[in-house]
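Question: Now follow the chain.
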Amino acid sequence: MKIKIKRLFNGKVDIRDYALQGCLNKWEPVVFELDGERMTIPPDRFGEGTHTQTVKSKFDGKEYGLISFKWKPDEKADPQVDMWSEYFNKAT
């Protein structure tokens, strides 16, 4: 699941608990995007998030929890290394 965020709050990103549970059920990672940077959280690391608060929806009145993760963008791959790895994978 990809989630575009506009800003960080205290250096953290939030996801609704039911969205995180849906990703866990499908065993798919959550990818947060902010200003061209990405942070990928695989399902086996979902437990590292902290429940920060419970919020009541303005639309249907249902309550949901927010799970926060500390923002740590993925390391950018070196395009030169990617080029050579593609070359050698094709050659074999």
Remarks:
- The first helix runs from residue 17 to 26.
- The radius of gyration is 17 Å.
